[in-house]
Amino acid sequence: MWTMSSYDYVVAAVKNVKETLKDSPKWKMPKNAPTPMTSAYEPKMDGSSELGQEDHTYFQELIGILRWATEIGRVNILLEVSLLSQYQAAPREGHMEQALRNHLSK
Known about the structure:
By secondary structure, the chain is mostly helical. The chain contains four helices and no strands.
């Protein structure tokens, strides 16, 4: 049987996201994210540009990774992931930035 602890999953997920984004000219993970979402951020009020098809798909992948992380124990990001999950049909740049922030929150 193959198993992975929640800690190992989160470490692997962060590593995977960093590898994917290392050559991205547009998206970067924040250096330090003490909270899963910027304090004053309201996803429903985000007026940034909608994501293109490739970024849209990657946003959906990030949400999937984050939802799985909440299932295996990272309940501290459950509210933020649920809020961002609502925007999978038409995510915006601000939503992507917040999803990336979730991957580094403590």
